[in-house]
Description:
A hairpin with a 4-residue loop joins strand 7 (67-72) and strand 8 (77-82). Strands 2, 4, 5, 6, 9, 10 and 11 form a seven-stranded mixed beta sheet that branches. A four-stranded antiparallel beta sheet has the order 1-3-8-7, with no helix packed on it. The N and C termini lie far apart (40 Å). By secondary structure, it is an all-beta fold. 0% of the residues lie in helices and 61% in strands.
Amino acid sequence: QVQLVESGGGLVQPGGSLRLSCAASGSIFSINAMGWYRQAPGKQRELVAAITSGGSTNYADSVKGRFTIFRDNAKNTVYLQMNSLKPEDTAVYYCNVKGLTGDYDLKFPFSSWGQGTQVTVSS
């Protein structure tokens, strides 16, 4: 199994910054894509940002220019640097990691989710 532990959420004023982190551990053979999603009350979960093993990134239009996703492959950790935060960024943020679990003889694909961390942007 692969476990994800998120940290870094909290309360911040509009215009402020937060950095989220998500560390993956367990039986990991390789990690492909890592991403951040968010879900606001009464809304569907949406993709915020994603990064591939090669470093290619993808962002939701609403966060382009304000959020940056990056990863530390040695630590199996993905980060989301959030700047110029707005009240509409308020949501529970979840990380998602996709890859292969197992060993050289037997591998299976996995897709694991973090427990979620609350981000509240309010004055």
